[in-house]
Amino acid sequence: MKNSIIALFATVTLASAVHADSKIKDLPYPKGNPSALELAQQNQYVDKFYGMSRMPIAYQPTGRAVLLTGKKGGSLFTTFVERYINTAPVGTHYLSQELSVFLSGKNQSLGFLISDFADDQLPMFQVWSPELRKVRRMPTPLFDDRWGGSDFTWGEMLLQRPEFETHKIVDAETFNRCLGTLQTKAPAPWADKIPQGSCYQQERPVYVLKSIPTFSQIKEYDYRIRFIDAQTFADYRTEYYAGGQLIRVVEKNWGPMGMEDPRIQGWSYMYGYDLRKNTESMFLQVDRNTTWKPKDGEFWSDQTLRRLHR
Question: Which of 68, 176, 245, 265 could be cross-linked to 254 through a Cys-Cys bond (beta carbons 3.0 to 4.6 Å apart)?
Answer without folding.
Answer: 265
